[in-house]
Amino acid sequence: MEINDLTPAEARVWRAFATGTKVDFRAADDEDPADGASWGPERSVRAAVLRALLLDGPREDGEVPALSLAGARVTGRLELQYAEVGHPVRLRHCHFDEAPRFYAARLRELNLSESVLPGLIGHAARVDGVLRLTRARFEGMVRLGGAEVTGSVYLESTRIHAPDAEGPVLQLNQAVLAADLWAPGLHARGEVRLNGARVTGTVNLTEAVLDRPGGTALQAETLTTEADVLMRHAEVRGRLELRGARIPGRLDLSHARLANPGGTALRASSCVIGELWLREGPVVRGALNLRRAQVDVLFLQPDVVADWVQLNDLTYTSLIPHEPAERRLPMLEMGDSYLPFTYEQLTAAYRRIGDDDAARVVQLAKQRRRRRTLPWYGRLWGHLQDVTVGYGFRPLRAGGWLLSLLAVGSLAYGLHHPPPLKPQEAPDFNPVFYTLDLLLPVISFGQENAFSPENWYQTLSYVLIITGWILATTVITGLTRTVSRQ
Q1: Do residue 202 and residue 308 come from a single domain?
Q2: What are phi and psi of 299, to 5 degrees?
Q3: How far apart are CA 449 and CA 120, in angstroms?
Q4: In DSSP terms, which residues pair with 257 in a beta bridge?
Q5: Which of 304, 338, 371 is where one domain is finished?
Q6: What pLDDT, on a 0 to 100 scale, did the predictor assign at position 478?
Q7: Does 194 share its domain with 343?
Q8: Number of domains in the chain
Q9: What is the pTM (predicted TM-score) of this model?
Q10: What's the per-residue H, E or C state across the chain?
């Protein structure tokens, strides 16, 4: 392309390229590039001119060429698929008439910050530096699936609204980022896809708004990071899908608003997470699925827990903040299935911090939940163990029953002594030890075999004997269960 074929605006950009000089067509810093469709030829640049510059632009000895342009209207489509561009590309505050194509291109740096674009096509592109889309506004899909960026991808306060999109509005699936995905304040209306992406640094979605009601707002299955995923104060309307993700640092959902009524709000099943923080926010609207996840530190406030929680085979080392067992148990008892492993996990968490009382409360709740799965005779025996000794976790309760029965028997037989079987050989009658003889099935004080009560006193003796055997059996069963848990 000859310089004589250029408009004055294009000639200015052409001359500045060789030295990397910035060309700024803006009349004021606060101009809105959304109005760029009305900009005239004095600040319009054809995409073909930019392509010619990037592929075969002028050079000057001792200078580093770069395309640095602000406040321009880019007409036509910038076609750079499969191209190798060894210069920085900085097109800030610009208005694009058509979505640029960088499919499988290799770029030194790409900066489209604060520009307005109808979309971006960059599948399988490689950027040897940073990719900046800060505060850019897209009216179509941003396609970066399979892209490789040796630096960070910046999407701070970027807005993506693609009402006619037939797929995810932001595609970073299978992308490889050697640093961070930095997107605080990102606003995406439609699905954001990070399936299989590998991020060496942090994924920062703090204060992001991901809006796809009734669908998947963030699809990040098998996402792998080497640091954190930060979603503090984020608002997610739709499913947050993290199945199989690997996050060795922190998945921080503090103050986040998760809402997918009637569906799953957060699915983090089969994940490996260093720390999961779900706290200080409103109640999750929708199900919380942590099945088969492995979490080192689980920071979970009961007030945030959803109406439906799936914890099958979830493992965690620490559970914070420390809460009474009664506050934790409701999330274990949701649904119709009995999941003993969830109770064992909670018990172990309490025992690790030395709260044996809370651990016993959880184990008692486990036995009560298990009882509902038994046939009628098993439930009857379970109720008996529960009432008498609390399944062995309330052993003092058996002592209370024994003392009560001892008092009843001692009073009854103290007021009406049973006649001796052999008056000449019988010892002196003692109502307390006689009652103990009836209650205790093994120990004998010589009273039971020496006296024979009559009428209803005989019936009372049968009741005391049967009750004693039941108490002894339930105590032994409960204590055996308790010892086996130690």
Answers
A1: yes
A2: -100, 95
A3: 97
A4: 235
A5: 371
A6: 57
A7: yes
A8: 2
A9: 0.82
A10: CCHHHCCHHHHHHHHHHCCCCCEECCCCCCCCHHHHHHCCHHHEEEHHHHHHHHHHCCCCCCCCCCEEEECCEEECCCECCCCEEEEEEEEECCEECCCCECCCCEEEEEECCCCEECCEECCCCEECCCEECCCCEECCCEECCCCEECCCEECCCCEEECCCCCCCCEECCCCEECCCEECCCCEEECCEECCCCEECCCEECCCCEEEEEEEEEEECCCCEECCCEECCCCEEEEEEECCCCEEEEEEECCCCEEEEEEEEEEECCCCEEEEEEECCCCCCEEEEECCCCEEEEEEECHHHCCCCEECCCCEEEEEECCCCHHHHHHHHCCCCCCCHHHHHHHHHHHHHCCCHHHHHHHHHHHHHHHHCCCCHHHHHHHHHHHHHHHHHCCHHHHHHHHHHHHHHHHHHHHHCCCCECCCCCCCCCCHHHHHHHHHCCCCCCCCCCCECCCCHHHHHHHHHHHHHHHHHHHHHHHHHHHHHHC
- Expressed as residue numbers, the domain containing 221 is 3-371
Amino acid in the structure at residue 177: L
Query: What proportion of the chain, given as a percentage, has pLDDT over 90?
Result: 57
Q: Work out the burial of residue 92: count CB atoms within 10 Å of its CB; fewer than 13 is exposed, 13-18 middle, 19 or more buried.
A: buried
Question: What pLDDT digit, counting tens, does each position of 240-257 carry?
Answer: 999 999 999 999 999 999
How far is C-alpha 265 from the chain's CA centre? 9
Which of 371, 395, 412 is the C-terminal boundary of a domain? 371
Instruction: Look at the alpha carbons of 64, 70, 75, 79 in this order and tell me if their dihedral is positive or negative.
Output: positive
Q: How far apart are CA 435 and CA 408, in angstroms?
A: 9
390 and 443 assigned to the same domain: yes
Distances (CA, A) of 163 to 118, 130, 187, 191, 241: 11, 28, 14, 11, 22
The pLDDT value given to residue 100: 97
Same domain for 181 and 82: yes
Q: In this predicted model, what pLDDT tens digit does every residue of 201-223 receive, in sequence order?
A: 999 999 999 999 999 999 999 99
Q: 């274990």: which residue's tokens?
A: 332
Which residues neighbour 106 within 8 Å (Cβ) at sequence distance 6 or greater?
A: 83, 84, 85, 125, 126, 128
